[in-house]
Amino acid sequence: LLWKKIAYGLSAGRVQSTGLKLIVERENERINFKKSVYWDLKAQLYPKKESDDFESQLIAVKGKKLIASKDFDSITGEKKNNDALILNEKESMAILSEIKNLPWKVTSIQNKEIQSQPMMPFITSTLQQEGNRKLGLSARDTMRCAQKLYESGLITYMRTDSPNLSSQAIDAARKEVLALYGKEYLSETPRQFQSKAKGAQEAHEAIRPAGERFVHPDDIEFTGKEKQLYELIWKRTMATQMSKAIKSSQVVKIEAGDCEFQANGTRIIFPGYLRVYVEGADDPNQALDNREVILPEMKEGDVLNVKDLKTISHETKAPPRYTEASLVQRLEKEGVGRPSTYASIISTIIDRNYARKLGTSIVPTFTGVAVAQLLNKNFPDLLDYSFTSEMENSLDEIAEGNKNWIAYLKSFYLGAKGLKSSVDKKEKDIEPETSRTIILPHIKNFSV
């Protein structure tokens, strides 16, 4: 059908098409995103010594909450909190002039202890995500490196969606933690993990260093990306048996005239598993969460000095394009595909010129948009995430002997609403010229 209506040589694999749909939908969200500009103020303040200065941000004026990035819809850009105050440049400058010479006073200090647990050990999808985020590897290259490590006997099998660790793995990790970091860094009891994914195939355990004694990353023969990937697997496995990280969070509210400012501090009381492993993130702001921000000693009623006061302009950003890491994460969340297929799905989408890499981002091509457009318009059920996920469940039932595979395939392909009858019915109504016309809301239509 695609060969007749768009171009020869195209394909529309079941999971591949769903992956392409996600990429194209994200691009459309970016095109339709409504950008907003808003202003606030930042103040560098200090209690006594100027060297003890810290940053605070305007959060309210005359008791009315100032708008923040979380008050805008991340997909559409529309304002979610209609009660929040939006300042323009002129208004923010007027506030600056009004408060710069007023007394600044600490009105409240809140301290809270936060504990965090280590992430579960690697499964195929999370290894691909971290390989992409931390090492810049594509899903295919991550699996290629993992294959070499597996063949060399350094790691367990790398195609698995089970986070389960064997007793051998737990014992090895705990001995290693004890030897390298001491008893205080060892979790009180052995930590085991269960898959949250429905229909997870648990024939293999999690991806971890092989054997009853883990080889230290410095002692393996590999160099380059293979060594870096092994170190990632070693650290993540070690972290699973380490104690919680304990942080102290501090929120300081400050008053200047009718304005309320806020300063946030974070202090690591005990690093625990963070000594070994910090989870990666696509969002750079998230990565900053693990940095310490130490605020100087203050108490309620303290008068503060102003070192610097300035207005800041903010611009809401369209949702980011998918990276390989975030696309794998989304496919897994929707229950689409299997861990062993993610690398080949993404490679196929790129190799067939349905999308291209721009840095780490995946950008659809016009061919990709045309294919997704035709499928979405004429066969929406086949691209529906729940349909694709349900098919995974049906295939699992067939594998377990609980469903007749011939009857299932007959219904899927030859049934009243099956693939063959759907294509036969739609084919005559699909105009090649229409199929090759890209519909983009911000420019005039043109054909590919």
Q: Give me the count of strands.
A: 11
Determine the fraction of residues in helical runs and give it as a percent range.
25-40%
Largest sheet: 6 strands, antiparallel, barrel
Which class do the helix and strand fractions yield?
Answer: alpha+beta
Beta-strand percentage range: 15-25%
Please give the radius of gyration in angstroms. 27 Å
Could you tell me how far the N terminus lies from the C terminus, measured between alpha carbons in angstroms?
A: 17 Å
The number of helices is 16
Major beta sheet, strand line-up = 1-2-6-5-4-7
Shape: flat
What number is the mean pLDDT? 90
Low-confidence stretches: none
Question: How would you describe what is shown here?
Answer:
The mean pLDDT is 90. The chain has 16 helices and eleven strands. α2 packs across α10, α4 (124-135) crosses α7 and α6 packs across α7 (224-240). The chain has helices spanning 2-5, 14-32, 89-99, 124-135, 139-151, 167-181, 224-240, 284-287, 324-333, 342-351, 366-378, 380-383, 385-399, 405-414, 419-427, 432-435; strands at residues 37-46, 54-61, 64-65, 104-116, 245-256, 259-270, 303-315, 355-358, 361-364, 437-438, 446-447. β5 and β6 form a beta hairpin. The two termini are 17 Å apart. The strands form three sheets. The protein has a six-stranded antiparallel beta barrel. Strands 8-9 form a two-stranded antiparallel sheet. Strands 10-11 form a two-stranded antiparallel sheet. It has 448 residues and is α+β, with helices and mostly antiparallel strands. The longest helix has 19 residues, at 14-32.
